[in-house]
Every structure is written in structure tokens, then in C-alpha cells.
From TrEMBL:
Residues 392-414 are annotated as: Disordered. This is MFS domain-containing protein. InterPro entries: MFS_dom, MFS_sugar_transport-like, MFS_trans_sf. Keywords: Membrane, Transmembrane, Transmembrane helix. The keyword Membrane applies. One of its GO terms (molecular function) is transmembrane transporter activity.
Length: 414
């Protein structure tokens, strides 16, 4: 939580690239030092520092990748990001299997971070958006020329004019955001605004519960997979591979079936899978594993959806604050997830019952939320109270229609 708020702020001040590279280096160096720890206190301090820097890799790398690729390739970036997450998730099992000593295991985890930091230093450019917004015209022009050299998309003429156009556009956007923020600050505080609109207050609490339960279920299912019948290493790898279909199919499902329906159905899928697990005999190992994998697919799908869903429910003036609130509180779900193992020591079915119950409750609460597919995004709580998400051709296009166009203006230089 501390690292997420600090490093994302730092990336806005000094840049995405230095924040990402320094976070990778810190993770690798601290992890290597942890392998030399002589007592539990040194180990805990080292792991705390690693936890501080991990958001600098997870969050900043996402932003940097999105800001460095064309809009048409961002769906592909999402897929690659998800696939690489699965690769890293699954790589843990063979490392643990072949490396028995924890000191060497920590070293094996940490060295790749240092290697990738070196690779990124020589290959990954700074975000073009960051360069333009901070007035670094020469570096922005160099970025565009470099993209033209490798991508064969842009022409060399009018590079300076393009940079100036992008700079003016970013300044207009910042001025638009500043005016919106100043207008909202003249009113009351966040809590008072929520209390003025009771239904939106309900939506906020439901989304907080949804994020927290999804975090708890995701990490709980991942951690508890090694306690299932069968080979614990294969169970862990399979629980990671179960996420791949989610990353491939959910973007299509969201566009065609809506957000609310998909999120609710995925939670009911998790709940039903665990209800089946409760009544399965112990000798049905493969069927038990299949139900567990289906539930892992369901919660991974929901996890992908809630970022889109939450962004479309919260109004523009409060979106960052409300999403940040959801993300921070959801961390507590991840903190308590490892302790589900203690329930298993009391009774083997207690973790299964708990997972299924939380999933079904979350699915029922999701039904209270509005559908946001192809709906107008509200700009403020007042607009939220006055509208019931009237249909429009695209929520993203609807919101961006109030901002200066960029891509169409840039295309004139091609």
C-alpha cells in the first residue's frame, strides 16, 4: 500500500522509466541480500522493502507500456501482460521443486530482476506522454524519430510541429482536468458527497467488498492449491494456467455480454464449483482439480473485469480517489488469504465452504450494481444522480469527446 502510493507519485515526477528500473534493481539487490540474512528480523525488513518496491514494477510497467504503444495495440499489450503474469506464476513451481535451500531460492528469484533492469536500461524508452507533458521537446522528438526508424510508420518531416501539437494537446487536457478538480473542490468533501447520493454510496461499498473478496479469493485459491489432493507442484502450475483462458476470452465477453452479467456469472461459477467440491468424495482427484481450476478461471476473469467496471461506475471527478480506495482496502483481502490454511487444519472443508460462500455473496451483491456497457460515463456525482446510464455508442468515446483530439491531428503528418 505504501509503495503503490509513493512510487506511482514518484513516476509522475521523475518519470516512468527511472522508477521502473530503480524498482527492479532494488527488488533484485534486496532479494539477494535477504538470502544472506542471519536472523528473522533482517529477513522481515528485507521482505518489507521488497514489498515497497514491487508496485513500482507491477503498476509503473503497465502505465509505461500503455503510454508507449499505439491505441490499436493496447489490447495486445493487455494479453501479453496477462500471459507474462501466468509465466511468472507458473515458474515458481519448478524453482521450488529443484531448489530446496531457501537462500538459493531467494537468489534465483532476485537475479532476473537485476538482469531485466539492465536490459530495460538499454532498450526501453521513457513515456512519450511524460516527455511532452514535462516540456522535454528534444527527447520527445528523438523518441518520435526512433519510432519512425523501427516502426516505419511516421515520416521525418514536421517532427517538431508534431511535438508542439502534442504539447499543446497535453496542456489543454491538464487545464481541463484542473478546472474540473477546482470545481469539485469548491463543494464538499468526498464523504459528504457520497452521503448526498445514498445509492452511489451503496455502489461504492459494494465495489469495495467486490475488490476485497476478489483479492481474497484469488490469492486464497492460489495459495491453497498446493494443499489439494495430488501433486502440489502440478496443482500450482495448473492453477496458473487456468488464468490464460480468462485473459483471452474476457475482453471479447465484456464487449458482447456486458460488465454486470459477466462479473456476477463469474462469481456464481466460483461458488457453484466449490459447492460441488463439498460433496465430491476424496477419491475423485481429477474432478476435484477440475472444479478448482474452473473456480480459478472464474475469479481471474472477475479480477480483469472489475478494473473496467469500477472505472465506468465512478464519475470522472472521483474516479481516481474511489478506485484507489478500493485497491487499498482490497489489500487486506490479500493479507488474510494465507491464513485460510489454518481453517483447513480445523476441518478440511472449511476453506472450500468459505470460498464458495464469499463468491456467492459477491455475485448477489453485484446484481445491485448498474450495467455500464455502452453507457454514458458521468462526470460528477450530480450527473450520476440525474442519469441512469443512458446508452451511447461507446463509454470511452463518450468521455473522450470532451477532450481535445490527438490521434486525428497527428495523422495529418503521416
Amino acid at each position: 500500500m505504501i509503495g503503490a502510493s509513493t512510487l506511482t507519485y514518484l513516476s509522475d515526477k521523475i518519470g516512468r522509466r527511472p522508477t521502473l528500473i530503480s524498482s527492479l534493481l532494488s527488488l533484485g539487490i534486496i532479494g539477494t541480500l535477504i538470502s544472506l540474512a542471519e536472523n528473522i528480523l533482517a529477513f522481515i525488513i528485507g521482505r518489507f522493502i521488497q514489498g515497497f518496491f514491487s508496485p513500482g514494477v507491477l503498476l509503473v510497467s503497465w502505465v509505461l507500456s500503455y503510454e508507449n504503444v499505439p491505441i490499436g495495440l493496447r489490447g495486445f499489450v493487455t494479453l501479453i501482460y496477462g500471459v507474462m503474469w501466468v509465466v511468472g506464476f507458473c515458474a515458481v513451481a519448478p524453482l521450488v521443486y529443484f531448489i530446496a535451500n531457501w537462500r538459493w531460492l531467494m537468489t534465483a528469484y532476485s537475479v532476473p530482476s537485476i538482469v531485466f533492469a539492465a536490459i530495460y536500461f538499454f532498450t526501453i524508452p521513457e513515456s512519450l506522454h511524460f516527455l511532452i507533458v514535462n516540456g522535454r521537446k528534444e527527447r520527445a522528438a528523438k523518441w518520435i524519430r526512433n519510432a519512425e526508424k523501427y516502426g516505419k510508420v511516421l515520416h521525418k518531416r514536421n517532427v517538431d510541429m508534431m511535438v508542439e501539437l502534442l504539447e499543446n494537446t497535453c496542456l489543454d487536457v491538464k487545464e481541463h482536468e484542473h478546472k474540473t478538480e477546482m470545481t469539485e473542490n469548491l463543494r464538499s468533501s468526498l464523504i459528504e458527497q457520497l452521503m448526498e447520493h445514498k445509492i452511489f454510496c451503496v455502489y461504492t461499498f459494494i465495489l469495495i467488498f467486490l475488490w476485497t473478496s476478489d483479492t481474497f479469493l484469488y490469492y486464497g485459491l492460489s495459495n491453497y492449491s498446493i494443499h489439494l489432493p495430488g501433486n502440489k507442484y502440478w496443482n500450482y502450475v495448473l492453477s496458473g494456467l487456468a488464468e490464460l483462458p480468462a485473459y483471452i476470452t474476457i475482453p471479447y465477453a465484456l464487449e458482447n455480454f456486458g460488465r454486470k452479467r459477466i462479473v456476477a456469472c463469474m462469481h456464481f461459477l466460483v461458488g457453484i464449483s466449490h459447492i460441488i467440491l463439498i460433496f465430491l468424495p476424496n477419491n475423485f482427484i481429477w474432478l476435484s482439480a477440475l472444479c478448482w481450476l474452473i473456480s480459478k478461471f472464474g475469479i481471474s476473469s472477475s479480477f480483469m473485469c472489475i478494473y473496467v467496471y469500477g472505472s465506468e461506475i465512478f464519475p470522472t471527478t472521483m474516479r481516481n480517489v474511489c478506485l484507489g480506495l478500493c485497491a487499498v482496502i482490497a489489500r487486506f483481502g490479500g493479507v488474510i488469504a494465507p491464513y485460510v490454511i489454518l481453517l483447513g487444519s480445523m476441518h478440511a472443508l472449511l476453506p472450500t465452504i468459505l470460498f464458495g460462500l464469499i463468491a456467492i455473496i459477491t455475485g448477489i451483491l453485484t446484481c445491485i450494481l448498474p450495467e455500464t456497457k455502452e453507457c454514458i460515463l458521468p462526470s460528477s456525482l450530480d450527473e450520476t444522480a440525474q442519469t441512469k446510464y443512458h446508452s451511447s455508442k461507446s463509454p470511452i468515446c463518450q468521455e473522450q469527446s470532451n477532450l481535445p483530439a490527438t490521434s486525428s491531428s497527428i495523422n495529418q503528418f503521416d
